[in-house]
Amino acid sequence: MDTDDNSVPASILLYSTAAVILTIGMREIGSILGPIFFSIFFFLILSPLVHWLQRKHVPGSVSVGLVILFFIIFAIASVLLVTGSLLQLSAQIPGYQAQLMSTLENFERYLPSSDQYPVGGLLRDVGTFLLGLTAGIITGALSTGTTIAFIVITTAFLLLDAASAPKKMEKELKDQTVLLSRVTEFGKSLVDFILIRTEINLIGGIGTAILLLIGRIDFAVLWGFLTFLLGYIPYLGFYLAAFPPVLLALFKYGVLGAIAVFVGIWLVNLFIENVLFPSLAGKSLKLSPSIVFLSLFYWGYVLGGSGALIAIPLTMVVKMILESSDNTRWMAKLMESGGNKE
């Protein structure tokens, strides 16, 4: 009994030390790991399409080639759409800055101020910071072409192995039926979650774009695409995606218009997150809300801002690894939501 009691803190110390070392190591090579993880992420989304084509009696090499061609076309179209919109948006930033200053000056008269605490100057500083931040994001987005090309090429190579990968795994793990069963079950749940999340994000992005087109908000399609992309970030993604169109609505229609746009986007998000997503995903996530929230910051720290986009799939992988050993299964249990029962 004493040995077991003493081994618990020792095990916690050992696992904590290993986690810190692993985190530091992954952060050091985050610029390489990020694109690789995204390539695997896209592979998991597209591989079911390869298998679907094969079930329709399309030859293996042809099905993989068609999916790769589809992915390349989609990537090029997305890059052209985003790049073109961002270049136009970048050119209009000085005009938006003037509109923001005018809006803040009109708003300033309703706020208390003094010589010691000039509210107007503070508002102008905030406005300048927000537009500078937007410009920095645009510049960063326009400089990611090499990374996108690497992701596309890596995903294509992964898809080339999609047809034979299950057979290879089954052959290698034929004497480890339990491990094979766990890997298969986890792979299915992870792919199902990613596909459902992608479908939900697509509906949310299209709904948001239509709403903004009706409201005549500039670059509505771009903000719809941003809503689709940031939908992979739980809790925070909605606010990050809603900020740009709400800001443009403030320029165009004033405070009431901005509130109306925010409420419209919020209703779309409310429907897909609280009605549509639970009905499709059920309890497949099996992660507690606190773990989901903390994973955003952890993977964001390790891989940069893009890590938050794939934080949930990566956390599910970590949970699967912890479940694979009797010594660490208790950690996987701690990651589950309170409502999950074996």
UniProtKB/TrEMBL annotation:
GO terms for cellular component: membrane. Keywords: Membrane, Transmembrane, Transmembrane helix. Pfam families: AI-2E_transport (PF01594). GO terms for biological process: transmembrane transport. Its main location: membrane. The keyword Ribosomal protein does not apply. It is a multi-pass membrane protein. The chain crosses the membrane at residues 7-26, 32-53, 65-87, 129-160, 190-214, 220-241, 253-272, 292-322. The keyword Magnesium does not apply. It is found in: Membrane. Belongs to the autoinducer-2 exporter (AI-2E) (TC 2.A.86) family. This is Transport protein. It comes from Methanosarcina barkeri 3.
